Amino acid sequence: MRKPMILWSALILVIASLCFTSPARAENESNAAVMAAADQFYAALNAMFIGDAGPMEGIWLHEDDVTYMGPDGVFLVGWDS
Asked: Which end of the chain is more exposed for a tag (fewer CB within 10 A), N or C?
């Protein structure tokens, strides 16, 4: 009788620890992903400032629904625009 009680208690502890630690871990992973994307973007932007647009083209989304609005108010929709 004692063995099933210990197993259930252990299972409850494992489930509780997964439930309460996953959001923090996911948030840290999300923050790391955002920071990595920002680092890539700023590296590409700095390369573009010295005349190399290749890195920016490499990180830009190449989908049909990507939208760009330039400083002149012109909208471009899709990679082929």
From this structure: N
